[in-house]
Every structure is written in C-alpha cells, then in structure tokens.
Amino acid sequence: MSFQTAAYLRKATGRAKSDVANKLVSMFLHEVSRKITAKIGFNVADEKYVHAVETEFGGHCCYCGRLLESDRAAVEHPDGMNRFRAGLHIPGNVIVSCKKCNNEKRRDDQLHELTLAKTGWESFLSHDGTKCGEHCKTCAYWKTIWPDEMKAKNLKAARRKILDFRERYEESIELNRKAHNSLRRELDKIYRECQSFATDRIKKAVEAVA
Asked: 127 burial class (0-12, 13-18, 19+ CB within 10 angstroms)?
C-alpha cells in the first residue's frame, strides 16, 4: 500500500497548535500592511493596482503562465506572508497564481534559510533540475509543467516578469525590505508565545472538563 495512513493522521493531529500560531502571524502581518499602505496612500484594492495586475498577467498564473479559473486561482504573495519570509499585503507583493503553484511554492516559503535564491518566490523559480538532488519535489513539479528544453527558459521569463512588475512599486517593497529583520524577530516571538499559550490554556481547559 503506497498511501501512509498512519503518518498522514499523525501529521494532521499535530498541526493544530501551528495553525493557531500561523493565524496570529497572518493577522499581525495584515495589520502592518494596513499601516504601510495608509502611509503611502495606496493599497492593493485600488482600481489602478487591480488594473495593473490584470494588464501584466492577463488572467494567467504569475509562475507557470497557465490560464486561471475561479476555482483554481489564489491570491499570491511572492514574499510569503509567514514568519520566515515576512512578506506583506502591499502593492507589488500581491498578484495571482494558480492553486497548484501557490501550494508548491510553500516548500520554499517555509524554509528557515534559502539556498537557491534570496527570496522564496525566486527560489521556487530556481528549481530547474540542475541545482537540487534527484528527489526534489519542486523540480519534479516543474517537469510536469514544461518539457526539459523549455523549463529553464520559462522559469527565467517568469522571474523577469515578476521582477519588472514589482519594480513599479519600489516604495512599498522597500518599506517591507527595510522592516524585514524586525518583522522576523517579532514574528518568531508571536509564534512561540502563541504556541505556548495555546498549549497551557488548552491543558487547563481539558483538566476542567475531563
């Protein structure tokens, strides 16, 4: 039997505390995002920004270039909104991808330290099959999207397109970049404190009812 039921169930059971902590991380990053967009007087809901995303990517995934559909699209943050990448919901860091690329990119986004590139999204687009081991799941993913002779060229083109788009919003991207180290420190604190609180509070609640 290829499907590992026991391992899958153990993983799901142990995920609860992390889910709570990650939700608090997301809430914090959204609050910081609101403060920054208020400062620059421009946010991702502005009609001008929405039009820019539509014009640049034309209803295609920002990574693989496939046409998007309402049931397989995801709001994408190239600099992931998590405690490792500390990305924000700001102009230049909000575009649209397919759900498959959004999910696959999480492997790079959740790495404490990156080796292929300085950012999670650029690392995701660096898996061309020449830098990783033979069992790299992200390299295997890209093999399902393009044939080998097209892969490196298309990955490079996707990276260039996203870079060009982000350069138009240098003000907000630079504010995010400058705050990165302090954001990482606060995010680590929030994550640890939330997990500790959740563990202690739930233990007390369980003791009170069982």
From this structure: buried
